[in-house]
Amino acid sequence: MEGSAVAVCEILKYLIIHWKCETAGTSKGALLEGQLVISMEALNSKHQENTLHCVTTIASAGSIYGGLVLKKFLKEIQSLLPGFSAKLNWTSEEASYSQDISGVTPFQMIFEVDEKPRTLMTDSLVIKNFLHKIVMVHPKIKFNFSVKVNGVLSVEVFGKPKFATAELLCSRIHPVLGHPVMLFIPDDMVGMGLLGELTLTPAAALCPCPEVFPNQLNRISSVSIFLYGPSGLPLILPGQEQPTTTVFKDTSYFIDWKKYHLCMVPSLDLNLDRDLLLPDVSYQVESSVGDQSQNMDSQGQTLLLFLFVDFHSRFPVQQTELWRVHTLLTTHLSAILMESHSAVQDSIQVAMDQALEQHHQATKDLQKFQASLSVAVNSIMSIVTGSTSNSFRKICLQALQAVDTQEFGTKLHKSFHDITRHRSLPYCSCETKQQLLPEENAEENTEDVQENSLELLAGTSGQVENKRLQQGLEETRAFLSARGPSQSEAAACRTKPTAASLTPSGSRASPGGDLEDSLWQREVSNLSEWLNPGPEP
Amino acid sequence: MAFAPMGPEASFFEVLDQHRASLLAALRRGGGEPAGRGTRLASSSEVLGSIESVIQGIITSVARNEAPAFTIDNRSSWENIKFEDSVGLQMASHCTTRKIKSDSLKSVKKFALILKILSMIYKLVQSNTYATKRDIYYTDSQLFGNQTVVDNIINDISCMLKMPRISLHILSTSKGLIAGNLRYLEEDGTRVHCTCGSTAVAVPSNIQGIRNLITDAKFLLIVEKDATFQRLLDDSFCNRMSPCIMVTGKGVPDLNTRLLVKKLWDTFHIPVFALVDADPHGIEIMCIYKYGSLAMSFEAHNLTVPAIRWLGLLPSDIKRLNIPRDTLIPLTKQDQMKLESVLKRPYVTCQPFWRKEMEIMADSKLKAEIQALTFLSSDYLSRVYLPNKLKFGGWI
Asked: B44-171 and B177-392 share one CATH topology?
């Protein structure tokens, strides 16, 4: 696929890699921080029917792109996008101001294309998907993404920390790291001149946290796999041809699902329109046998698997080399992973074992809890209904504002469950303290790593699962942030897997979650205008 | 009382009578029996009201959106135990507690089981029926898991409500036996006439309910083991030493056996002696009768008989009687640990003679069962050892 989306994504990747390399020597372990503005402004083409003339602008705030050699940048970007028809323009001195775009900076590049409304819509969704994946690993990079079609504007902000009062429910996932493994390069790729080594670190987690629905027995219904390359950049774009993910077509190539009494099939139901955050690979549970609790009426849980491929070298890594690695992984990841099949399989399996062990334990604990509460409630009911003391019964009914013992029983049951669902789980260190500042990552304990800076509470829209995916993925960037920033810190950054969930503390609600929902809905509602462009308002 | 006078002549009991006199004098000096400060018998309405009060507290917590919890005294913690010579081991007035929470995975099951048993007690009291702990366990053995869980929760409830188990209409199964000069009426009117023959009577389930106790026994002998008790029955010990009463708890005594011993002491104030093996386990069992147990310390006033004396088998008897060494058994590691533990208990400090006997045992690292006396002669125990001990005051 060639289009604006690919261009924007490649440019962003290039910029971030450059940025990483520039900052690697100065602030090790620090998260990249800055702001980028992407805007797409489309108007009905004067020359072609049913076509929009779209001007895409990428601008940055601050001087984060100091050191960028513009001519070289343009030339390299153009070479990366051979099929891209538009010409990239650079305006570094003058600014092209638009009142809808905030934080316009001296750095700005623009390109113009003509494309169909449907293509523009898809491009927009692809870019958003890409931005979502980036901010999970780089929460301090803020993206302002706006789309204006025939005067109708929608804006979305990615990566802005949102703080609110504490929620009692856990809005996070709790990734479990597998041990990093070195990846072997296939023989036919040895000559590509990599002067370092590739490592893979898997992380697995369940989404949502069992605490979110503490009174439900959740089954695993799907698996989502996300692939990240060096510098914490997503390896692939949705909708692209995927040689990168060929190896995952065999669902059991790396993971023994029978061990968990699960039968997985590749999921083809990936809809960019519907899913805010599209995984790179998706599996669906076909059937599950054995002792896994099945409650087909309950919401299924998604097993998330993040595969982080990183590049380490004893020498300072040049941007070009990093870019080459990224490109290599984009096209040859399957072959590389297959070359190290056994090691990769072991590492992934360890992470999965731990993540699912928690699930099994959570299910057992939940059953135990529910059974005990049921006994407690029934016992109380037995005494209250059997009592001959009028005053005692009256006091009990009044306490729960019930008119009769039947209502009393219902309210008692509900009250008990409401109160006790915020119990602490041994494997989930979710805290309910009110916190307004990001916390440090207890596991990594790196001064510059700020944990939980982007905790968002899941929205209540139909995209609940994806929202939680998004939030939960923010957690994983903590594991990357201490490892990724400096490629020369290979050994130190290989964190050991722990059995316990690497759960940072604190959970927060976000009013922004609702804002995102409403913006998304508004954007979707604009699609019909794109598909059927009428006269300009 | 019309018992056939088969026992020794009256002079035989002189020392015993003197001992009894001294015990009575001590009682008078001490101002009589201390009033039951622990649990006390409660009426049905009190029990029901107590349980309703507990339930009300839970519902109030729930209404306030707080997870309810039980606060239970730590019955089995030595730090909550104090020792009083006249009572034995009892719970301290300000003792540590623990919370059984409903919102904790670790304790939610116990929270639920406490409520379950409370509801069962409620029904028993309302219907004026009784059940044993075993009955309660079998109402839902899968839920409870094992008998110990039920037993502990019942004790916790008894301690929490400050009411004895009998007031909760829960009976403990008796395993003890009685023999000798004793008659009484059970609560349901059954006349019980313990005999001096070769058969014994089971300790009744409802000790609080027995009345019209009649005896002219000169002493009460607590026998640790059933084997020894049966041996004495076979040897017609009760006849030969008549008038007397014998009781056995068949090892660690159940609640009813302890209650019976206490009741006999409270009613008749006759000398009470313990006949236990000369080993740490036997000494501990004797201490349970005399001073009480850790687990039941909250009911100490109803269960302990501090006036009990150690009759035999004393470690010093082993050497004195030249009991063959090959009949003695070396102390095991567990024995030594238990002996050390008993020596550290607060009540040993006011029993210097007991301490000395235990030190003899610790030094020799040997123990002996009562059956070791059969190596001297088969009926040495009933014909020589015990009569001499009783006649000449060989107790400590």
From this structure: no
> Is this complex scored with an ipTM above 0.90?
no
Testing the interface with A: which of B44, B46, B52 to mutate, by most A Cβ within 10 A? B52
Interface test with A, best of B115, B121, B129, B153 (most A CBs within 10 A): B115
Contact A373 B108 (CB under 8 A): yes
Q: How many residues does chain B have?
A: 396
Cβ-based neighbours of B274, under 8 Å, separated by 6 or more: B221, B222, B224, B286, B289, B290, B308, B309, B310, B311
Place of tokens 């607060």: B346
Task: With beta carbons under 8 A apart, name residues in chain B contacting A416.
Answer: 62, 102
Average pLDDT over residues B241-245: 94
**Which among B52, B63, B108 has the least Cβ separation from residue A392?**
B52
The contacts of residue A322 (CB under 8 Å, 6+ apart) are A17, A20, A21, A230, A231, A311, A487
Q: Tokens representing A136?
A: 């999970």
DSSP state of A369: H
Both structure tokens of A83: 């099929």
**B275-310 b/e with 16+ CB inside 10 Å = b?**
bbbbbbbbbbbbbbbbbbbeebbbbbbbbbbbbbbb
Question: Are B59 and A365 an interchain contact pair (Cβ–Cβ within 8 Å)?
Answer: no
Alpha-carbon distance A269 to A136, whole Å?
Answer: 23
Q: What is the 3-state secondary structure of B175-194?
A: CCEEEECEEEECCCCCEEEE
Q: Assign B69 a pLDDT band (cuts: 50, 70, 90).
A: very high
pLDDT at residue A167 tops 60:
no
Q: What is the pLDDT of residues A263-313, one digit of tens each?
A: 888 887 666 666 567 888 889 888 655 544 444 445 678 888 999 998 888
Mapped onto helix, strand or coil, the DSSP state of residue A458 is: coil
Alpha-helical segments (H) within A280-401: 319-339, 341-386, 390-399
Report the distance separating Cα A330 and Cα A237, nearest Å. 10
**Domain B177-392 architecture:** 3-Layer(aba) Sandwich (3.40)
For the stretch A130-161, pLDDT in tens is: 998 888 778 788 899 999 999 999 999 887 54
Dihedral-angle region of residue B220 (phi above 0 means left; psi in -120 to 50 means alpha; beta otherwise): beta
Tokens of B24: 């009575």
Condensed to tens digits (0 to 9), the pLDDT of residues B5-45 reads 578 888 889 999 999 999 999 888 876 555 444 456 789 99
Q: Does A457 touch chain B if contact means CB atoms closer than 8 Å? A: no
CB atoms within 10 A of CB B44: 13
Distance, CA of A415 to CA of B102 (rounded, Å): 12
Chain B residue with the nearest C-alpha to that of A395: B56
* Domain residue spans of chain B: 44-171, 177-392
- Choices 1.10.3720.10, 3.40.50.2300, 1.10.10.10, 2.60.120.280: CATH for B44-171: 1.10.10.10
Q: How close does chain A come to B156, measured CA to CA in Å?
A: 17
> Which is nearest to B160 in space by CA: B39, B66, B270?
B39
Q: Which residue has the tokens 């979710």?
A: A430
Q: Residue A450, Cα to own-chain centre: how many angstroms? A: 17
Other beta carbons within 10 Å of A274: 13
User: What pLDDT shows up at residue A55?
Assistant: 92
Residues 6+ apart with CB under 8 A from B226: B177, B248, B250, B251
Cα distance from B94 to chain A (closest Cα, Å)? 29
CA distances from A312 to A28, A188, A484, A488, B169 (A): 14, 21, 9, 6, 75
Distance of residue B148 Cα from the nearest chain A Cα, in angstroms: 18
Nearby residues of A133 by Cβ (< 8 Å), 6 or more positions away: A226, A228, A234, A277, A473
User: A345: how many CB neighbours lie within 10 A of its CB?
Assistant: 17
Instruction: Give SS3 for B3.
Output: coil
Written as six digits, the tokens of B113 are 């089981």
Closest CA to A428 of A141, A214, A163: A214
